[in-house]
Design a protein that fits this description.
- By secondary structure, the chain is α+β, with helices and mostly antiparallel strands.
- The protein contains 27 helices and 36 strands.
- The strands form 8 sheets. An 8-stranded mixed beta barrel has the order 27-28-30-31-32-33-34-35. Strands 13-12-19-18-17-14 form a 6-stranded antiparallel β-sheet.
């Protein structure tokens, strides 16, 4: 390759010198040509009236003889159309008998020119012959390239070169133009020259032939000339390529750069390009190229081999560095299970004494692992005796019990997919495994006592339920143990003592149970007990032992001795139980029954027991109540309260009663859900819903007198002790703008007696706010009349159990009489409930009872219906 460049440069210098010599000769020749043309023009300028035809022909012949590359000469003049006829006569005088302005069309045909204001037409031509005579009259203005050249020569008073236009007659490729002017002197300014020009002379040249004669034969030069006009792109005069050998791609491998020269064609700059040949030394170059290519190929092969060796070495080094740097233990073996590599992490994992040695058997190493229970690590033989895990990643424990590792076994393949070995990768996850076990333990155990928690307890119950459904011959039962008055111990002895009691109970109760039993703390002071035995009698024996334990158990704190008792509810798992919730709901009912029966009791759930069925029904009401509160699906009914002495009068007092629509939209009586609401502490929320609903419905009645229409709202015992109820009632008054005089709140006798102090506080607040108070179900309690004088109530509602039979039962009659008389003595008006017959109404009138309420007057109906009738009709 280098030799090729050497020969190429030598040849290039030879052609460069040859090109310089050619250009010098061209410039000298062009100076002579321009001088001849300028002389012709100057001679015309100094001659009076210019030349005639014969003079022009003789002068042109001498010029052509002196300039071998000249082809033709011509005289052109500027002729105005108005002077065309006189001009024709003048031309005839000079021997030109036919003159007509013409132009060349796109096919090269001479066509007479239409009338123009002026013409720049050829009027004489040399050599003169029948063919060239046809060019007489050719208008130069019709050629796009000639007209600018004519004007430039006139303006500069100099020779201007341009390319011959398309279809120009003859073989010439270049036209030289020189101007002439009117008179015998040349105007000085370009403007005057433009006004005074009368035409000029042109000379056509075959520069291509001339250049080829200047260049030595067979040298292979390529040449081109382009004129460079000021106002247009370069014009190519000619271009030719000479080559000695066929032109192939290889010829251009060392193609020399061309030689470019600036030359003058009169006043027109031009660029001459001479390019030396590219293939004259092709054979020499090919030899050099082939030799260079061979050397280059050898160099490349050696470089590739060296690079591959270095790359392989580098990859191996990087792999070894990586294996030494990672925390995972890696051991590799060949296809015969012979260990051939152990990285540093593997040595640290096994320890120096127990680390497998290079050359030892991989199978023996695998046997040093043992399965974790449940089994999570198994191998199966593969191709060529290698091993692979039965799944992607398993836990395995080394013979050292402190190490737990995650193992991955993978085969090694060569480029032909043949197994050549095995890789054993291990990650030490001892810390993660211990943490996972600890988290799993905490998720299933109570942090205080260490026994099972609710989650684990429900899991145990679920497994027992599955055993029962699978008809396994074993009895199972679940019990709740709820400590009685545990809060008292926390409040008096402190929470630390309460925690100590729970820990002691967890230990001591477990000692009473069979190994198959499960014991859990469910939260707070509640424990769960799972019992399994061969028979129901064995289960009852175990639960009785737990109950007996609490009958004599005492707890000694730092300062006090406490008698600890518990309410225990138990339910046997039966075939009709489908879910864990079915079982636990019955256990919950049994525990509530134990509490309601006075605490410190054991209650075993019996699905055939009447009380049990009622409690179960209450639990079924619970989701209905919750849904009614959430979806606002309660409804308000009203029942009229009228004067006992005038039962036909229009009612103005009404008691508001709560109903829940069933699935058919029919109202459900309150006794079906009130007990459940009280048991599950929902009455506060229900009472608030009623207050809001009643206030909202009667808000538009403010235009009527407050004493004309009033409504009684029942408050439960839970609301009677709710210290936040007064604030809620105030907010509803502000929200709905209801007059307090229109509202009467009813409190049951039992609720008032059970919470006397709080009830008195609530009554004082309500009366101070303008509300009236009624004491409901009076006579149902076992108390005397003595507390009445301490309660500021407005109405006594006589319990219906005494009212409905006063016409047939003299004791009931006297009870009603007594309550009515005591009420009147204290200034309290009385209302009799459960008035169902005309006779009962007449008896109440005779006893001077103030008001009556019951089915005899009307049955409860929707409050919306009352409001729609504007309180003028009663359904």
């Amino acid at each position: 390759m280098l030799g090729g460049y050497y020969w190429h440069n030598k040849e290039y210098n030879y052609y460069h010198n040859l090109a310089d010599e050619t250009v010098v000769e061209m410039r000298n020749s062009m100076v002579a040509i321009i001088s001849e043309l300028r002389s012709l023009g100057a001679l015309h300028q100094t001659s009076f009236g210019g030349f005639n035809h014969l003079q022009y022909q003789r002068l042109s012949q001498g010029l052509i003889d002196r300039i071998p590359l000249a082809q033709e000469t011509a005289r052109y003049e500027i002729i105005k159309h108005k002077d065309l006829d006189s001009y024709r006569k003048e031309l005839q005088y000079h021997g030109v008998f036919e003159f007509q302005p013409k132009f060349l069309d796109s096919k090269g045909q001479l066509i007479p020119l239409d009338e123009r204001e002026s013409y720049t037409a050829l009027i004489d031509y040399y050599p003169a012959n029948p063919i060239t005579r046809n060019n007489i009259g050719l208008d130069l203005n019709q050629f796009q390239s000639l007209h600018p050249a004519v004007m430039e020569s006139v303006s500069k008073y100099n020779t201007i070169a341009t390319a011959v236009p398309e279809h120009w007659p003859g073989q010439a490729d270049t036209i030289l133009m020189f101007p002439t002017y009117l008179g015998q002197t040349v105007p000085l300014s370009p403007v005057d020259r433009q006004r005074q020009t009368d035409g000029g002379y042109l000379l056509t040249l075959d520069i291509e032939q001339w250049v080829t004669t200047l260049i030595p034969q067979n040298c292979g030069f390529s040449a081109s000339i382009a004129v460079l006009h000021d106002s247009s792109d370069p014009q190519d005069l000619f271009s030719f390529t000479a080559s000695l050998l066929p032109d192939r791609i290889l010829h251009h491998q060392f193609k020399p750069r061309p030689f470019q020269y600036k030359i003058k064609l009169g006043a027109t700059p031009a660029q001459l390009t001479l390019a030396p040949p590219s293939g004259i030394y092709l054979v020499t170059l090919m030899k050099a190229i082939l030799l260079g290519a061979a050397l280059l190929a050898l160099y490349i092969l050696l470089s590739l081999a060296w690079s591959a060796r270095r790359a392989t070495s580098g990859i191996r080094e990087r792999a070894l560095v990586t294996l030494c740097s990672i925390d995972d233990a890696v051991i590799t073996a060949d296809k015969h299970n012979c260990i051939d590599y152990v990285n540093p992490a593997a040595r640290r994992l096994f320890g120096n004494q127990r680390c497998p040695k290079t050359g030892s058997d991989l199978t023996a190493l695998i046997n040093r692992f043992k399965e974790i229970d449940p089994p999570e690590f198994t191998f199966r033989p593969e191709i060529a005796g290698a091993y692979r895990l039965s799944s992607r990643a398993r836990l395995a424990m080394l013979t050292d019990p402190l190490k737990v590792v995650k193992v991955r076994v993978s085969p090694l393949y060569d480029s032909h997919s043949n197994q050549v070995g095995t890789v054993l990768a291990m990650s030490d996850i001892s810390t993660e495994h211990a943490l996972s076990k600890e988290l799993a333990y905490q998720a299933m155990h109570d942090p205080l006592t260490g026994i099972a928690n609710r989650r684990q307890f429900e899991h145990i119950v679920n497994e027992a339920l599955c055993d029962t459904l699978a008809r396994k011959q074993k009895s199972h039962a679940v019990a709740y143990i709820d400590l009685d008055q545990f809060k008292l111990i926390n409040d008096t002895a402190g929470h630390a003592s309460g925690d100590k009691l729970l820990i002691n109970l967890a230990t001591e109760i477990q000692s009473l149970l069979d190994p198959a039993a499960g014991f859990a703390r469910l939260g707070g002071d509640e424990f769960g007990l799972f019992l399994a035995a061969e028979s129901v009698a064995d289960i009852n024996r175990q639960i009785q032992a737990v109950y007996n334990f609490f009958q004599s158990y005492h707890f000694q704190s730092e300062t006090q001795l406490f008698k600890v008792r518990a309410s225990i509810g138990l339910a046997h798992i039966r075939d009709d139980h489908k879910t864990v919730n079915d079982v636990l709901s019955e256990v919950d009912l049994a525990c509530y029954a134990a509490k309601d029966s006075g605490r410190n009791n054991l209650f075993i759930y019996d699905p055939e027991n009447t009380d049990t069925k009622e409690r179960h029904g209450e639990m079924q009401c619970l989701p209905i109540l919750q849904a009614a509160l959430k979806n606002n699906s309660f409804s308000i009914y009203v029942q009229a309260i009228v004067k006992a002495s005038c039962d036909a009068a229009e009612p103005t007092r009404f008691e508001c009663l709560l109903r829940i629509p069933n699935q058919k939209g029919e109202p459900v009586a309150p006794y079906r859900f009130i007990l459940a609401a009280e048991r599950y502490d929902m009455m506060r929320d229900i009472d608030r819903w009623v207050i809001d609903a009643v206030f909202r419905n009667i808000a538009h009645l403010d235009d009527t007198p407050a004493e004309a229409y009033s409504f009684a709202i029942n408050l439960s015992g839970q609301s009677a002790t709710d210290t936040r109820l007064p604030a809620y009632i105030d907010s509803m008054l502000i929200k709905h703008k209801v007059s307090p005089k229109r509202i009467c709140f009813e409190l049951t006798e039992t609720a008032v007696i059970s919470n006397m102090a709080q009830a008195q506080e609530l009554i004082r607040y309500l009366r101070a706010g303008g509300f009236s108070i009624a004491l409901d179900d009076f006579g149902s309690g076992a108390s005397s009349f003595g507390y009445l004088k301490h309660l500021q109530v407005d109405y006594l509602k006589i319990d219906g159990q005494f009212v409905k039979e006063i016409t047939t039962n003299p004791i009931d009659l006297e009870m009603v009489r007594s309550i009515n008389n005591v009420g009147h003595a204290l200034g309290i008006k009385t209302i009799a409930e459960f008035v169902e017959t005309r006779e009962t109404m007449k008896a109440l009138e005779d006893l001077s009872v103030d008001y009556a309420q019951g089915y005899y007057i009307n049955r409860p109906y929707p409050m919306s219906q009352l409001l729609e009738l504007n309180l003028t009709e009663v359904a």
